[in-house]
Amino acid sequence: MKLQRKNRLRATALGALAVSGALVLTACGSDDNTGGGTTGTGEKTTAASNVDCGKAKGQLRASGSSAQKNAMDLWVKNYMAACSGVEINYNSSSSGEGIVAFNQGTVGFAGSDSALKPEEVADSKKMCKTGQGINLPMVGGPVAIGFKLDGVDSLTLDAPTLAKIFDSKIKKWNDPAIAKLNDGVELPDKAIQAFHRSEDSGTTQNLGKYLGAAAPNDWKYEAEKKWPAPGGQAASGSSGVAAQVKQVDGAIGYFELSYAKSQSIPTVDINTGGAAPVKATSENASKAIAAAKIKGTGKDLALDLDYTTKAEGAYPLVLVTYEVVCDSGNKPETLDTVKSFLSYAASDDGQKILTDAGYAPIPAEINAKVRETIGSLS
């Protein structure tokens, strides 16, 4: 009798322990504070369980692009849940600040929405010692044009009209150029409040590349990280621009789709000249990114994007965020952790969680090269 009672108590304790463990796993997988959406508890927990922690240890500091913040938050949460004793600290600042921090040697890797410039590569050689900084495409997605216009739920614009809006040439929402693209929509006689990034931003540069390519007669500025046009209002980070658009009637601004999704901000459909206007979705961005070509040399995997595509369902205003690392000469104390963490981000599981967060996975053919390059870092 005593033995049976002991067995029953032991079974009860084990059952309670199993329930407790399941609750802990559920909490790790579902307590999402990123605001960017998730793929659900089951998938995130599975993703974390498939992480290869390798020889990762200690703290890894990284910084840069705010465009990938919501993706990075998901990756960090899953990775740290799987790799006990490892801390990943990603500071979502801006692409420009991330590259500066990388070249100063204060971070293990940087996130940037634009590939390194030649002068930035030259600077990286001082820090990388035996190598140089390279670009690893890790996150894709649409740059959404968000708006707030009371009484208007759906809006279509094209590149020339967007260029004139952000260049302060079109100032009212009922301008004939906007009305022509939105037949049947009652547009108010209201001032346009255009918001842009206040700091150097790869998202700004990608918008500039798109406008320069798709509306060359209306956007005469070089595609730089610093906002080039007069007028408009500035806000800090993609989150800051999204917050302003969310609350200001008559506002328009640009930010990654994850910010629009998390805050229920309506986004502009883009008239590319194709059969129908294209919505800003992860799937439509993937169609545009899939046509990208690798323009980098050696281990550098910088991409050449086609901003003028008219392919059916391809959303042309896209960006790719790169993780910037040394091809060789990475710091020994963080190298193993950099390789382990980025390997997870580039894995099937790491890429799979991007879509529901408003991002687009990197095309498989390109991503295979990313994984190979991560494995060769030294």
From TrEMBL:
GO biological process, one term: phosphate ion transmembrane transport
Residues annotated for phosphate binding in this entry: S65, S66, A67, S95, D113, S201, G202, T203
Keywords from the UniProt entry: Phosphate transport, Signal, Transport
GO CC annotations, alphabetized: ATP-binding cassette (ABC) transporter complex
Domain called PBP: residue spans: 55-348
Signal peptide: 1-27
Gene3D superfamilies, sorted: Periplasmic binding protein-like II
Protein's UniProt keywords contain Signal: yes
GO molecular function: phosphate ion binding
Keyword Transport: yes
Alphabetical list of NCBIfam families matching this protein: 3a0107s03 (TIGR00975)
Similarity comment: Belongs to the PstS family.
Protein known as: Phosphate-binding protein
Species annotation: Streptomyces griseus subsp. griseus (strain JCM 4626 / CBS 651.72 / NBRC 13350 / KCC S-0626 / ISP 5235)
Lineage: Bacteria, Bacillati, Actinomycetota, Actinomycetes, Kitasatosporales
